[in-house]
Every structure is written in C-alpha cells, then in structure tokens.
Amino acid sequence: MNRIVELLKGFDVKDDYETLQKYSADYGIMSKSIESKRKLPSAVIFLRRRDEVERLMEVVREYHVPIVERGKGTNTLGGAIPLKEDSVVVDLSGMKGYCTEEDSITSLPGTEFDEVGIERFPVLPTSFYMATLGGFVSGGSLGLGSLKNGAIWDNVMEVEVYTPSGRKELHGDEVKAVVQAGGTNGIVTRVKLRSVKRGKIKVRRTHFSSLDKAVDYAVDQDGAEFVSIRNKKMMSAMGYSSGGWTVIVGEEEGGGDDVAFRDLITNFAGAYYTVVNKMKVSYTSLDLPLYRLYELDDECMIDAELSKSQGIMFSHTYFLDCTPKLEGFKFDLHSVLINDRAEENRLSKMIEFKRRYDPEDLMNPGKLLF
C-alpha cells in the first residue's frame, strides 16, 4: 500500500491515477514552463472540517509530509501544482460556510463567490464563477475592482492558518504573510474580507489617435471598477475594429453599455487570458508605474490594466505575441515562485513567516525561496 495513504487512514483520501492527474493540475498548465515542473502527488485528501485540518497537520509534523493546498484549481500560476512526487494535495473545496456583516464577509476556504453574492466583494478574480474564496486569498492578486478598492491583500482583514508549527490567527498587516503566498505558509481555514455594495457596472469604450491622450484620459478614471488601455492589435484580437488606442472603462452606474457580468470578465477584465487561449500566443506581464505607459509601442498586443496595491496606482500590463522592450517589475506569469510576483515589503513578511513556522518547507514546497 502507498505509504502516504497508510499514514492518512481515516481521511477521505484517493490515490488512483485519474485522481492524481486531475488534482495535480491547475490553469497554470497553459504555461509550458510551469507545466513542465508538474509532478504527480502520492495522494489527494479531501477535507471538510477544521478538526480534519488539525489531524492532518499532526501527520505533517510527525512524518514530514509535504502538502499542496488546493481550492478549485483555477490559479494560472501553478499554485496547486505539486513540485515533489511525495506530496499530498489537500482539496479544501468542500470546506464551505460563511457569515456576513454590513462591512465584512467571514468565510471558510471552500466557499464560492456566487454563494455569497459577487456584488459584495471589493475585488474579484477573473475565475470568480468557479474559484473559491480561500483559493483567491491564498493565490490571487488583482482583478475586477482592484483599481477602485485595491488588491486582495488590501481587503483581507483576518486569516486563520494552520502551519507545521500550529494554528495562527493573523490580523491587519499581518495577513500579508499569507495572502498571495500560494499555500507556502500554511493551510488557510478562515478568512475575513472587507465587503462593499457594488451596483450594476456599465462599460464604455473611448478611442484616441494618440497614446498620450489615451493615457491622460485613463489615469483620470481612478474611481472606476476597471480601466484598460489597449492598442489596435489587442482590440482586433478581441473582435473589435478600432484605430489607434482604446480606453475601456467599467464603472458603477456609469454611462455606457450594459454587459453581463461573466462577459465583463471574459471580454474586458480578463481579456489577456481569453486571447492567449484563443490564439495560443506568447505572453508576459510587467507592472509599470503610470509614467512608463507613455513609452508603450505598437509592436505587441497590449492590454494595460490600471490597478492599485497598497494605495499605489500602477499598470498591470500584458504583452502578447512579442517580448516587451520596456523595463518594469516583472510579474512572472511563467514562474511558480512567489518571489517572482510579490512586492518586496510583502515578500519579506512571507519569508519571515516561512522561516519561523515552516523551516522544513513542507507547505507547497519549492515555491517560496527563503
């Protein structure tokens, strides 16, 4: 018998080949670089209660079993992909439940956005219609609403996390040690997020003959839910005919077209993913300060999405079908390393937490260099 399965007696655990294949992949496999690192785990365990998490962590501590936290597998950066063959994938999608207050949402990790009501979340991932709250907190970053309300780490108020060193409750700025850490710092079992009241979003497209005018207009829309600057090549890839540069603005009760929420994500807030899947082109991403937007050229398909993180406005900019000439902070879409995505001040909190509570690197091993 599989040694790991023997250790996990009493849990809902599977180790058949079909299950191992399915649960060792997430949407990160669209990157050949990430997919090449994928290993089949020894087993997949399905947890539904906090006491099961506690029991599992006892096994992890005693037998030094590496584990990989998983929600619905919608992460595009390999967060749920094991890098070690003796890993156990921990599926938390069945650990559901939430409560709401006027200004907050408290939830178990397996709860899905639609179960709570998408209008209540300050920032939504492009995979909101199938992702879990725990998965987004553990591995997400930006999304619809991040320009107006900030990134996911700006909106998480509390996190409960189980580490090899025990249960920890994090509050305020402490949560940045776990949010976007991709499960490398423990199993997230409860999150508390800030809540908003979002009305219907309308979309308008404004065309400009020059990049300078497009950027000037875009940066003035910082109260919108999302703002994207796209060139003619990107608009054409999305099925729209336009010259020059186009600024797409989505704002609550603003002027413009009514758009179904899922189409809002697919065609606007998540456009790069749609184009990459359709055209199978190369892609990369740079986080650029706003002044660098004036230096964009027309060689690539470009989708510059304005966002905020820790109160600073910037452009999360996608370059498709070419290599960008600009320099910026590379948000590496082809790396499994958290170090290749997190800002320095947040990364330092993750590393400090890792060194203190998981020095053996048992939690999603190999993805946080510390």
From TrEMBL:
Molecular-function GO terms, alphabetical: D-lactate dehydrogenase (cytochrome) activity; D-lactate dehydrogenase (NAD+) activity; FAD binding
Q: Which PROSITE patterns match?
A: FAD_PCMH
The GO biological-process annotations, alphabetized, read as: lactate catabolic process
Stored Gene3D superfamilies: 3.30.465.10, Uridine Diphospho-n-acetylenolpyruvylglucosamine Reductase, domain 2 (3.30.43.10)
User: What name goes with this protein?
Assistant: FAD-binding PCMH-type domain-containing protein
Where do the FAD-binding PCMH-type domain residues begin and end? 37-198
Looking up Pfam families in the UniProt record yields:
FAD_binding_4
